[in-house]
Amino acid sequence: MFLGIIAVTIAMQVLMVELLTRFAGTQRLTLAQWGVCVAIAAVSWPIGWAVKFIPVPKRTLHQILTTWRNSCFSSSASYKGLELDSHTTN
């Protein structure tokens, strides 16, 4: 199924670039330009495959930054007139 979708996408791109130039506002590509396009696509697939092996942390970036901010500014002193502690005593 996935390869079928890729094939349809490639066919549509070739159709738009080579046949529907006035409709799509494109210019036909030379054989060398098509070769560059295919080379870029051929390089992007292994890179995408390799990126999938990068481990994803259990905590989100927002959680990491919030923890860091709270640890850096955990004193009860105010910063530029703003209270940093989430608990205020009145």
TrEMBL record:
Keyword match Metal-binding:
yes
Could you list this entry's UniProt keywords, alphabetically sorted.
Answer: Magnesium, Membrane, Metal-binding, Transmembrane, Transmembrane helix
Please provide, alphabetically and separated by semicolons, the GO molecular function terms listed in this UniProt record.
metal ion binding; P-type calcium transporter activity
**Membrane-spanning parts:** 32-51
Q: Which GO terms describe its cellular component?
A: plasma membrane
Q: Where is the Cation-transporting P-type ATPase C-terminal domain?
A: 1-54
Gene3D superfamilies in alphabetical order: Calcium-transporting ATPase, transmembrane domain
User: Pfam families from the xrefs?
Assistant: Cation_ATPase_C (PF00689)
Q: Which PANTHER family match?
A: CALCIUM-TRANSPORTING ATPASE 13, PLASMA MEMBRANE-TYPE-RELATED, CATION TRANSPORTING ATPASE
Question: What is the protein named?
Answer: Cation-transporting P-type ATPase C-terminal domain-containing protein
Recorded source organism is Eleusine coracana subsp. coracana
